[in-house]
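Researcher: Please predict.
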Amino acid sequence: MQCAEGAPRPPPPTLPLEAAARSGAVPTAAVADASSVARKPAHCGFGAWLDLVLSGQRGVVAALPPAAWRQPCAPAERVVALAADKREGCAAWWAAQLARATRFAPARSHGTRAGSAWHVTEAFADTPWLPDERTYGGPDAVDAFELECLAAAGVALALHPGTRERLSEQPHLSQRLALEMEAAALGLAPAVLATFAAHVGAQDGPATVPRLAMVTQAPSFRLADVLAAHVAVQRDPALRPRVDAAAAQRTQHAMGSAVARCIRALADARLLKLNVGPDTVVFCPKLFEATDGDLEATGFAFFHPERGDDVVKGQPRLVNFDPAFTRRVPASVREYDADAAYALMMLQFLSASAARFGSAAAAPLAHAAYGRSPEGAVVLDPLEKPEDFEQLDVHRALARCGAAPGRVEAFVTLLQQPGLLQQPLLPALREAAAEFAARARPGGGALPLLGCSLPALVRAATGTRAAPCAALAQRAP
């Protein structure tokens, strides 16, 4: 994996993890049978509960997707605090295991310009110390096979910078954690096997939180890797014969539909995420048991020029829920509109992809969102489109907004409210509001799809200057 544009490759995580491992006493008792997990009390806010567990108790919180639970439950019930009286529920124990018993692959580490770092093990790396279903509530609560599949392909460690204060006194970090956990519980972000505050200092001293650590299922690759490989193959005459260009285009087209489905689910959950791009879309292996008893991955793959073969298959998930660009809009905010949010996030995603890697590389992603064939030559027959295309079609989402009196104006007003996201993003949001309004008006479907949309928002989210407008102006089918 390559670093986000403008971000240096992060150093190994050993030193901060070792410091955290020495910062507190670890219970001697391990989970033997089904352990009790704790959920947020009804009278307590989510942020206050996380602060109590992570800062006050130096504990551990996890968020597993719907498939991991035996019984259907609300997203909030899929976020649990591990048993505080067992070593698996102690932050220092997790830090020690990650520092001393986990081998991360330096080539798979990457960072962001904001200072966050991701460290990933090799695919299917052996991590026998990882807790099993007993730690997460027992076999009656958690599906042992599904939990095994989440970690069998490897784990990732995300380290987010903080300050020497409690989590509750760091709104940016606290909001990030709440957003990441909700997305993981919805199955839209990688499953969170453990989150803990990497404290430094004695447990009876001041509670310092220099980093927030999140242990998740490992991604196989990022969308940025797919698009970079496309560019590399196109530029290298020796590589081009090794890749079936039409098949690769069809794969990227299908990836576009799968990513659009994640973004639609975000919009329906009232999560507005305006930094979706090649670096924040990852593909995590979805494992199943083959006829010979081995675990195999399903999903999407691509030819990796540096390795000379295909990567491990994966399904799309979203990462980096930086609150500077992400907000959960309360149900009380009537100006919010799921169609409008979806259309805006898709425009931002497609523009960021084109700005970073060029319109030719990003075109199949856009064609999927607009109901065209992978190469964009024809409008697909309804029977050739996904069954849920009615909800994924960006043109139709914009048309529904424009057809309903007041919907466009209300959403534009919401985007320009100073309190929606952080103040430095306000000029970019004003530009985005103006473009959204133009696209939602009759005839807005003739605007270019890629390359020149939302340039200020793309620059703010990715650090990439938008590429010149591509010759992809198409009318709504």
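Model: The two ends are 37 Å apart (CA to CA).
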